[in-house]
Amino acid sequence: WEWRSNIGTRQSRKRTPSDISDHNSPPNLGLSETSASRFLIAMSFLYSDQWEWRIFYRPTADAPPAEITSAVSMHDERVDVYRPHSASVGLKRRGRTAIELKVTVEHDGNGAERLIKFALRSESEVDAVLQRLQVQTAPDVKYNGVVEIHKQQCKSYQLGAMVEVVELSVVVTAPDGTKLEPRRWRSLSVEGSQAMCVALAPRLTERALMESIGQPCMRGGYSKFVCQQVRQASQAVVTPDAAQMVEAVAETGGATALKAEQAAEVEMVEAAEAAGAAAACEVYIVRHGERVDEVDGEERRRWITSLEQCADGNDGFDPPLTIHGVAQAADAARSLRALLPQPKPFDVVFCSPLVRCVQTAEHFAYTFGIPITLVPGLGECCAALHHRSRSAKRRWPLLQPLEQLRVLCPRASFTVPDIASLPERFEDGPLTCAGSLAQGRRRVLLISHRESIRSLAKRQQSKDRKSDDRNTPYACIGLFHCYQPTTVEERWRYYGLVRRGAVMGGMGFDPAATKC
């Protein structure tokens, strides 16, 4: 449901989630009818499912400026004034009248958070909004103060997400009215889907640790950063000598000399990232490109004719890619290469033995410079070869032999592992084929079918996700974390698609790609 309004000369749009309003009625914020009308006129409610991951740190003097090399980027300079509220609720004044209220409604274990933003006319409206959203966080009134942040922003739009580097000059006004000297900070962030936040966070963390002067970095949004700045200002002895001493200690990297209670409030990103890397394996699952039997046109007619000329009993269960499907696979490989610029993020491409998946895997193998390993279990998840299908036993021997696949995909090399060591089923009770491939690895790449993404997404033991978990277009790339693989405690966490692929392709349409 949608509600639109004009506030001054600024166009604003309000998307109303189901937990805030009912059908066509305006949101009930606990105000009288007259007050609610004035409230709706004065407020623009901006609701979004986008996630944000952000890290703050004190950069060294020789750290490069805030700049990202990208074909699509923009620069911006402005001054925002923040008032501390709590770690999950932020208040920011932009311009003379507008107040932006930012509320964190969901966290994940990797530092990403999902936000709801409001534009208000008065701080008196904050409590009504938080009450309607059932946000229980009380403001940190004992750390009252103001934080003025001068920002030089460089935004770059990459792979459907916004990567941002911000140079910050932070001026804190303590509760007693004393204005402290400006301090230089830097912020790195990514805004987009949860999967993109999780995928890009290690790269941004690595850069922050390289450029930091030695103080612990702080992972979180502006609301948490502002509360931390005011809290430190309220606890410090604000005399010129003391301020200079603290600044000198920070610049020389002696963060351990700061007060214990101040250091306790700052997250140690290094330890968190190390623990996360040891506990989970990143699993990227790619669905194959557009298949020829699901389009209309000359390609499909030629393929049907070739089947009619075969006498081996092939019923068309293993169709190849269309020309458009090949282009989708190549584009998906380039997108993942841009997302993971490390020299060799994967050591092998694990692939379903069906032709459409092998053709897709060829582009990933060529782009990353790694071989392909065929895994029967990655093909067993599709309907044609599933163990519950009556025709599966007859179809397995009809798959293309390795020699034919080498001819079909000349740019790829293939490994021939011990067949007995490869799982034959995608799911076997609590264990999975993907989990066995993730064992002992930090990151794996699988080329499979839509059922693989959907099956593992169902295993997520956190709260139910939205129905678009099953939206798996051609050449989409899903990101998972696998914990304790090959054990009865094997767990999966699904972060969504780092590449959404393409539903429409050539002259055809994949009806099952958007069916939930």
From TrEMBL:
Pfam families, A to Z: His_Phos_1 (PF00300)
Polar residues bias (residue ranges): 1-10
SUPFAM superfamilies, alphabetized: Phosphoglycerate mutase-like
InterPro entries: His_Pase_superF_clade-1, His_PPase_superfam, Phosphatase_SH3-domain
Region ranges (Disordered): 1-29
SMART domains: PGAM
Protein name as annotated: Uncharacterized protein
Source species taxonomy: Eukaryota, Haptista, Haptophyta, Prymnesiophyceae, Prymnesiales
